[in-house]
Every structure is written in structure tokens, then in C-alpha cells.
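WARN no homologs supplied; continuing
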Amino acid sequence: MSIKTYARNGKCKIKVEVDMTIYTTADLMPKILKSLDKHKELVIDLSDVFEIDTSGIQLLEFIKREARRDNKVFSMVSHKENVLDVFHLYRLNGQLDAIPDNSVSEIKVA
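OK structure emitted
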């Protein structure tokens, strides 16, 4: 399984458990979009993502745009330093910032 999904009260937290590369984004996209469609707030946990490439960045940007278009909240948490380095390389620091993870850590599947 490439993701774990935790949802409650219109909020969804997705823990990505694979690297976000050209080899995985085609599989990740429909799963993430399905969760975005069902919930008002989507948080992506990147704590298990060790590698991210251009396709992974494009996926995150696409999800962000879709959330904005639908007036939904989208954020990411628990970035590893190497993922933040890629954000910096693409000059996306201000657009894809990390937020504290404690705001959504209580979301669990019943």
C-alpha cells in the first residue's frame, strides 16, 4: 500500500508511504484526489517520503490547485530535510511550507 488514510469530521490525513517520483505519482494521484473529493480538509503527511522528483512536486501543486478551486483546505506536514531541499531548489518554499503536525494528529479511522 502506498498511502494510509485517516478521516473524521470532514478532515482527512493521508500518510504517503512511498517516494513521490515518476514511478509512483500515477498511482498516488487518484487515491489523493478521491480523498480530496470526500473531505473539506486534506493534510498530506510526508514523513515517510525520502525522495521526491519533478512529478511528485507537480502532483502536490496539482492537489493544491484542486483544493483551492473547490474552496478546500490543503496542507502538508512532517517534511524531511531532503524534501524541503527539493522545495527550495524549485523555489517553492513559500508555497509548500510545512505546518505543525499536532493539528491533525488526532484524526484516526474509527
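DSSP finds three helices and five strands in the chain.
OK
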